[in-house]
Structures are given as structure tokens and as C-alpha cells.
Amino acid sequence: MNLFVIFLIGLTTGGISCIAMQGGLLTSVIANQKEQEHDELVSDRQKQKNAKKEKYLKSLGQKNFALKSFDKLDWQPVLMFLLAKLTSHTILGFLLGMLGSAISLSLGVRLAFQVFTALFMLATAMNLLNVHPIFRFVVFQPPKFMSRLVKNSSQSQALFAPAMLGFMTVFVPCGITQAMEVLAINSGQPITGALIMASFVLGTFPLFAILGVATAKLSEGWYKVFTKFVSVVLIGMAVYSLNGVLLVMDSPLTINRLVRPVTEIFSGESKTQTSTTATAEGVQEVTINVLSRSYQPNYVKVKKGVPVKLTLKSQDVYSCALSFVFREYGVKASLRSTDSQSFTFTPQNKGKFTFSCSMGMYAGTMEVI
């Protein structure tokens, strides 16, 4: 097992894939912290009304809006988030190598945590926009013993909340993380499994670090613009995440289904992306190529009441697409980067049914006629 290659996967496609979901958690916790710092700053201003204006403005500029330097509250949350993420995934890799798929999270549990993550990002956006005081409860407060140890409330917040959410990222794995989990299972060795997951997570560090520190510094210099921008981004990520869950569940209320009539009219999607199934010995054979960013074909037609042999093929793929879910027919597959797996089922009802990756990032449709 080449750990350096796994590290490079994390550094490139892995980091980009994971940041779509887990990056929202990091952004949320930093945004909440900066909101709290801003509130404390406003409170300090009230207490310093009688201070000399020139002296106060000078200290204010040096303490709160200096983009030239970094302080602990800029990098501590990012560091705690990443260290907790590394710890949880290393432990998971060890357990997967020792116990195998017996401890893998079920699809239902993963979707539940994906919903939680989306709701957390949405609540954070509402808190930043001051929609209602109830959304202030979305901020994770450190236990009292930690506050007493650290003394400074802002610093204890910078340690506890990021560490908690960083550890929780193990419950919302992106597709490439799931592929790494399969490698850890196949290794059959606890130490090897731990090294696989640790190498991958270390590869994702640079992108997460850039996102976290940039978010912290931008929030200081342009607080009002930052809060609005981050709120819009978090709302978009939350909607995207929830739509992914609905796609996996084959819900009729997904954005994809709502806009499908429009896309079919203007792009001719229903005609150009429909595959032809070959019938052999009374079985309809359907082959779907699993690519890094899509399934090809992503629209297939089959006949009702005739058995279907669905074959999934991947070739040097590292993305969420490897974790394939077709809920209507009970198909769940975790493919290796280069793999081929087949499933047989008989469609009994006419209609259009969605297949997708386990996060809902990539999807396609099977129409039964």
C-alpha cells in the first residue's frame, strides 16, 4: 500500500471533495466564534466610553482589525479542528483494519449526520444574519471545567467547538473518504488501516487550513460584508447537502427533478443521454461507467417485468461516485478505484427512479417503461 499516493489523493481530489461538506462545519464554527468576538467587542466599546478617543481607536485597530498578523484565535480553531479530525479518522482506520466492515456506518446513519450538518450550517447562517435569538444556541459552549482551566472564554471556545466538530467529521465522510475506508477494511491490519486514513486526512490539511485561516482573517477586516457573504455560502451548502440526501432517498422534491423539465427542453438531455439496453436470455443488461464526476450513461430505459443485470465499472476513479446507491432496488455498492460489480433485480413499477452516490453529489435516472 503506497501511503504517499494516498496522501496525494487527499491533497488533491480528496481535499476538494471533503471540503464541500466538512468545510462548511469549519466555516460555521469560525463564523460563530467571530460573531461572539464581535459581540464582546461591542460590549468593550460601551465600557470604554470615557477613554480617550485617539488612544482607544489606536488600540482597537491593533487588536481587532489587523490583517497583517495572526493571533491565537485565528489559527487555534483550525488546528483543533484538523487535529480532532485526524484523531477520529486514525481511530476509525485502526478499527476498520481490525474489525472490518462490521463497524462501518450504515447509509441511514450517514444520511442522518448529513442532515444534521446541513441544519447546523443553516442555523449558523441564521445566527449571523440575526434572524432570531434562538439561533444563538447553535454555538457550542465548552464545559465549565475547560473554561476554568483556560480562563479566557474566547480561547476556550476556540478549543472546544472546533475539536468537537472536527471529531464529528468521521460521521459525514465524503465519497473519497469512503473509498479510503474500503482500503482500510481490505488491508486486514489495524496499523495499516490507521496509516491509510491518517495519510489521507493529512493530505487534506493544507486546503482546510487555508480555508479556516482565510475565513478568520477576512472576518476581522470586513466583518459586515463577511457575515453576509458567509451566510449566503452556508445557506447554499446547506441546501446542496439536503438536496443530496433527498436524491439518495429518491424523493420527488429534489432540485434536480424540479428543474428537469426545463433542462430537457433546452438541452435535449432526455434524448442525448439515454442508453440502449441489450436483452440477452431474457435479461436486460445495463452497464454504467462510474467516472470521477458523473455516471455514464446517466439516463437509461428498461422494460417493466423483465430482469435487469446492472453492471457498474470504474477505472482509476477517486470520488463520491464510487459509493453507489440505488434505493428503489436495494442496490448499495462501494467500488474500488478500478472495479466491476453486478446486481440483478426485476423492476415491477413504471416510472423514473434515481440512482446516486451516497452523498447525492452525482446522480442519474432509470426509467421503467
Description:
This protein has 2 domains: 3-248; 267-368, Immunoglobulin-like. The protein is globular. It is built from 12 helices and 11 strands. It has helices at 3-19, 22-47, 53-64, 72-99, 107-128, 144-150, 153-168, 175-187, 190-221, 223-248, 255-267, 269-272, and strands at residues 274-275, 278-280, 283-290, 295-296, 299-302, 308-314, 323-326, 331-334, 339-345, 351-357, 363-368. Helices cover 59% and strands 15% of the residues. The two termini are 46 Å apart. Helix 1 runs antiparallel to helix 8. A hairpin with a 4-residue loop joins strand 3 and strand 4. With 369 residues, it is α/β, with parallel strands linked by helices. Strands 1-5-11-10-7-8 form a 6-stranded mixed sheet. Strands 2, 3, 4, 6 and 9 form a 5-stranded mixed sheet that branches.
Helical content class: 55-70%
The structural class is alpha/beta
User: What does the main sheet amount to?
Assistant: 6 strands, mixed
Domain module count: 2
Number of helices: 12
How far the N terminus sits from the C terminus, by CA atoms, comes to 46 Å
Could you give the order of the helices and strands?
A: HHHHHHHHHHHHEEEEEEEEEEE
